Amino acid sequence: MAKAHTKGVRKKIDRPPPRVFLGVGALFLGLNHLSVALGFGLHAEALMAGCWLVLVGGWVALAGRSFDAVWAWADPSGRRTIGLILFTLGAAFGAAEGVARIAYGQRLLN
Rounded to two decimals, what is the model's pTM? Predict the structure, then answer.
């Protein structure tokens, strides 16, 4: 146990690059919008990938210390890491479903 009045040590985590994630996510969302605008229909894969990349990139950019804490918690265990990835994919699926319904008036999965 840590003694009273001692400082803790924060583990340095290699974060994903938020600008790259946000840029590639915006590219995927833009490609999906272009596909809908040109009449090719909704591309669920591009919408899901874009939402996941924007979600993770935004999390790292806006709350990097919380990302470090959650990743440090999940890192030692493979199950936790898979669970964290599935949790973020679930959140991205919800965001993609919301975008599909609100912006395009369609459902993500028919």
Answer: 0.84
